[in-house]
Amino acid sequence: MTDTLFYWQAVNLALDHALAEDPNVFIMGEDVGLYGGTYRATENLMAKYGEMRVRDTPISENSFTGLGVGAAMTGLRPVIEIMTANFALLALDSIINLAAKIPFMSGGQFPVPLTIRMPQGVAKQLGAQHSQRLEHTLMNVPGLRIAVPFTPHDAYHQIRQAIRSDDPIIILEHDLLYFSKGPVDPSQAPIPMHQAVVRQEGTDITCISYSLMVGEALKAAQELQQDGISMEVIDLRSLSPIDWNCLEQSVQKTHHVLIAEEDSRYAGAGAELAATLQERCFYTLDAPIARTAGLDIPIPFNAELEQASIPHANDIARAARTILLQRSQKS
Amino acid sequence: MESEQLQQFLYDMLLARAFEERAAEEYTQGHIAGFLHLYPGEEAVAVGTIRAAEPSDYIVSTYREHVHALIRDIEPKKIMAELYGKRTGISRGMGGSMHLFDKEHRFMGGYAIVGETFPIATGIGYSIAYRHLPEAVLCYFGDGAVNQGTFHESLNMAALWKLPILFICENNHYQIGTEIHRHSAVVDVYKRAASYAIPAEQVNGMNVEDVYHHTKSALAHIRAGGGPYLLEFQTYRYRGHSMADPGTYRPPAEVRAYSGLDPIVLATRELTRHTHLVSATPPFDTDVIQQHIEQGYQAGHWQVADVETMKAQIQQILDDAVAFAQSSPSLTMDEAIQLVNQNHAHEGLI
């Protein structure tokens, strides 16, 4: 049955269903219990499932994340909430050196069925320390899987899939998506967790995006439509692994690629996308792959400069026009 | 203490010492590479603690963990093969000296970033509490690890939630080359546990019986629902931090003084007093042991035949272990990649 839910409600529902489905699932993090989560994602779950299964922690990101790894090694299925990705910097040893390494360096003896959820991204004037995007760091870690759900429906299903999986999986949620709304159908069979989807069909150019930026790309596509430009918008839904076939198929149709990402441009996800796509589709491309990305500066607190340091729909539309203008000038 | 138990301790420590010396030899000959952190001098800690634990308890160890694995009854040849990086190694050659894992023996890994054993042990402790089982976790760490944040974070959570964890400090007084009074404002590690209301004791880690008894009672406290416990064992490593460390920062007199407290020698003496049986003769090249064994011969405490039997048995085990490691094949790259993918083989990712 389809309900229209806020994103945070979809997360909450996924966690609720996972706790109900499997007694080995437990949730741990700062203020996830009594307080219900800073974005309400774990609201009412402690009352429903008890303190052992929905556990408020001290402010000790590295150790409670590592605790999740240890618990996962004995067969539990921990869901660790790190209050924001900014704090996950303190937990990188547990994520990179423990969760991602143990299944491998134990010679396959110890799977780590661990889910780590964290909001990230540029919200509204939270300052440089609270506006980080961490995908570039995590993507470079073999052994981790990373999902970046944009819609409430995806948030529900990708969280359920992550919890059921035997791999360590990072769910990057976006601060500004929690209060977006959308249809959620828990009973619908989900598509594979790392499959990309075409959110908007188009024929002139492919815009590849993920998380909050998909919304900006969709707005840009509407704007471009008025100019008679047909932009295809792909929601990656996952950053590790990446659904290259979906991207390749789109490029074969449009021959032009624009990547829209909120993360800083230098060595970001877009760099990997551009590098691999040119290897795979060089002869299909009619123009260099372009990126619209965050500026390579810490995010300013100042409201105008903050917004100017990350891409918006108009930036994406402008970049698309520029690419296509070069095409028409050539021909 | 029963004579049989003392003989077990002696055998354990002799095996531990001989294994490590053999590993050093293989390293020196270039047969094995990488970091190699050896345990001679600290044997009483591993033997006394692990022999006091139940098979259902979990072991979480550091990068100096060959001996913990041996005493946990993991086959020496599987440990040696791991040092060689072979597929027959306990971690299939993907972990190496610092990352021995054995699910069957609840040997939950050696961890090579100082301080990582704390959160892993806390997670296992949480899992035990979650399932209401009468099990415990033995969490090892050195004196250098107590200044990592994870020590404080994990002890706090362990105490807060009364988790069944025995924190075992192998205080050998050095974090690589920095002596404890130069790295810690409080040099008595056990005192730090008071910050988290965790009961703690400082114990002579050069005496295997002391180690065993203190561990037994700490585990009894934990199993009775008393929450975590911390034991600080004062010990000493005779070798450098690793094979790459000549150990020039320690005065020779200090090393000699601690060698006089050699846990193997002490155990041998105790065993002799109890049973008038045996001790070791050296394949082990430790002057202190050699000296005491000679004395034992002269005083008529030792029976040569028994000593020779034990010695030969251990040498044979190690010769076999090395031969096994040398003749074992490596994992292929496809198999290594498979280790990354095997846990989602049943999922369709894309």
Automatic annotation (TrEMBL), chain A:
This protein's UniProt keywords: Oxidoreductase, Thiamine pyrophosphate
Transketolase-like pyrimidine-binding domain: residues covered: 5-180
Xref: Pfam families: Transket_pyr, Transketolase_C
Cofactor list: thiamine diphosphate
Database matches in NCBIfam families: PRK09212.1 (NF006667)
Protein name per Swiss-Prot or TrEMBL: Alpha-ketoacid dehydrogenase subunit beta
Species name: Sulfobacillus thermotolerans
From TrEMBL, chain B:
Record keywords: Oxidoreductase, Pyruvate, Thiamine pyrophosphate
Domain Dehydrogenase E1 component: 12-274
The keyword Cell inner membrane is annotated on this UniProt entry: no
Required co-factors: thiamine diphosphate
Matching InterPro entries: DH_E1, PDH_E1_Alpha_Subunit, THDP-binding
Pfam families, per the entry: E1_dh
Keyword Oxidoreductase attached: yes
Annotated protein name in UniProt: Pyruvate dehydrogenase (Acetyl-transferring) E1 component subunit alpha
Organism name: Sulfobacillus thermotolerans
Taxonomic lineage from the root: Bacteria, Bacillati, Bacillota, Clostridia, Eubacteriales
